[in-house]
Structures are given as structure tokens and as C-alpha cells.
Specification:
The strands form two sheets. This protein has a two-stranded antiparallel sheet with strand order 1-4. Strands 2-3 form a two-stranded antiparallel sheet. It starts with a strand and ends with a helix. It has 93 residues and is α+β, with helices and mostly antiparallel strands. Helices cover 24% and strands 32% of the residues.
Length: 93
């Protein structure tokens, strides 16, 4: 069994702190830092909780390369994980 994990990745040096992603996130999962980046902008960052992977933040961000949404599947069924590990130890045969 797998569980999908999603989270935004924000490049703080490209972010201009416009807050569109913050306002647009239905989960209120993005916050504005009190610190500034090298260009003098406060920057957005992921709170670490609540992202559902909807990508609203990605589509609302006006800065190319400032924000991506990463997603991956995590194996949560321990018996499957053990089976894969056993296979790997056998050299995949
Ligand atoms: S993908 Fe959706 S839920 Fe996740 S941080 Fe972006 S707007 Fe929020
Ligand atoms: S929408 Fe983009 S530029 Fe604006 S605060 Fe969010 S990451 Fe930064």
C-alpha cells in the first residue's frame, strides 16, 4: 500500500514575497518569513504541514522557478516493504 506525499519547494532567492501562493493555498500551508533573501524580499516557505498537492500555489506564482510542488509515493505497508527489501537482497531474482 502506498501513501502520496506532497509538499511545495520554494526557492527563497527567487521568491519576491508577493504572497499570492500564501493567499491561494486552501490549506494555509505556506507562510511568509520574517527574514529577507539576498534581494531584500521577505520570502514564502512551507509550514511543513497540510499540503494536499493541489498545485494552486504553483499556478498562482508569477516567478518562474520560484515554486515547485513535489510529490512521491511512500510505501506504508510494511509487509510490501519487507518483500521489496528481500528481493533486493537476492539481487532482484
Ligand atoms: S500544493 Fe496546494 S495545498 Fe500544497 S502548498 Fe500548494 S496550494 Fe497549498
Ligand atoms: S507566489 Fe511565488 S513569488 Fe509570490 S510569495 Fe509565493 S513563491 Fe514567492
Amino acid at each position: 500500500m502506498t501513501e502520496e506525499i506532497s509538499y511545495p519547494v520554494i526557492n527563497k532567492e527567487i521568491c519576491k514575497g508577493c504572497m499570492r501562493c500564501i493567499v491561494g493555498c486552501p490549506q494555509n500551508a505556506i507562510l511568509l518569513s520574517q527574514d529577507m533573501n539576498n534581494a531584500g524580499y521577505q520570502f514564502a516557505y512551507y509550514s511543513g504541514n497540510g499540503c494536499t498537492g493541489c498545485k494552486d500555489c504553483y499556478f498562482t506564482c508569477p516567478e518562474p522557478l520560484a515554486l515547485e510542488v513535489h510529490q512521491y509515493k511512500k510505501i506504508v505497508d510494511d509487509s510490501v516493504a519487507k518483500m521489496i527489501k528481500a528481493k533486493a537482497n537476492q539481487g532482484g531474482n
